[in-house]
Amino acid sequence: MILIGQYDSPFVRRVAIALRLYGLPFEHRPWSTFGDAEKIAPHNPLQRVPTLVLDNGEAVIESTAILDYLDELAGSSKAMIAASGPDRRHGLRICALATGLADKGVSLLYERVLRKEQSQIWVERCEAQISGVLDVLEQERAAVATPYWFGAAIGHADIAVACALRFTGEAHPALFDAARYPALKAHAGACEALPVFQQVVQPLAPPKG
Ligand SMILES: N[C@@H](CCC(=O)N[C@@H](CS)C(=O)NCC(=O)O)C(=O)O
């Protein structure tokens, strides 16, 4: 398998961390969405990352679909999310909030670096959505006493949140005031201290306008 995309993307990073935690071997092509678009396009016409190219050449796109495939490869006993029921729904909700946070962070970053004149309406909307999600995640994480969101073992929700927080902090430092989000700060700190998070990391390199 080949994972396309740079680790400054919270989406690529969470996929790479899952691949490593599952012990699934893969090659990495750290292609940039803007600088290497012509290399990505034959695998994914959206020219987006992550893109996972399987050994038969088939490309799996969208991080959620990629993780669904990796869960299948890992098997239900190792999968980093409950197989069904309320815990699965709850886990998917936390993942959706985290990836939505990352989506809004990416949109806001592109607005800031790629547009000569920013749309104030869009900027304010993204900022409000980012703060709203951070407030909800903070409240929900503070209510959980276990080391990870769903107990003693790390799962997709933990990884998604930690990757989204790192990206938000790097892309929009003014929006992530650690004093306002102590539970999220502690969550991110615990995850980032793990060897796998330290191995799969890249400082943010935004596209140039
Ligand atoms: N929904 C997608 C989002 C992925 C995404 O936004 N990737 C960014 C890099 S962080 C990208 O490919 N940007 C280029 C573009 O959207 O044209 C996923 O979950 O895989």
Q: What structural class do you assign from the helix and strand content? A: mainly alpha
Helix count, per DSSP? 8
List cofactors, ions and other ligands: glutathione
How big is the Rg?
17 Å
Series of secondary-structure elements, N-terminal to C-terminal: EHEHEEHHHHHH
Give the overall silhouette. Answer: globular
Structure explained in plain terms:
- The protein has 209 residues and is mostly helical.
- The chain has eight helices and four strands; from the N terminus they run βαβαββαααααα.
- It has helices at 10-21, 37-40, 63-74, 85-114, 120-142, 156-171, 182-192, 195-199, and strands spanning 2-4, 27-29, 51-53, 59-61.
- It has a four-stranded mixed sheet, covered by helices on one side.
- α1 links the parallel β1 and β2 (27-29).
- The longest helix has 30 residues, at 85-114.
- The structure holds glutathione.
For the structure shown, list the relevant keywords.
mainly alpha; 8 helices; 4 strands; 54% helix; 6% strand; binds glutathione
Fold blueprint:
Elements: E1 2-4, H1 10-21, E2 27-29, H2 37-40, E3 51-53, E4 59-61, H3 63-74, H4 85-114, H5 120-142, H6 156-171, H7 182-192, H8 195-199
Parallel strand pairs: 1-2
Antiparallel strand pairs: 1-3, 3-4
The structure holds glutathione (GSH).
Glutathione binds at residues 9, 11, 33, 47-50, 62-64, 99, 106.
Structure at a glance:
The chain has 209 residues and is mainly alpha-helical. The chain has helices at 10-21, 37-40, 63-74, 85-114, 120-142, 156-171, 182-192, 195-199, and strands at residues 2-4, 27-29, 51-53, 59-61.
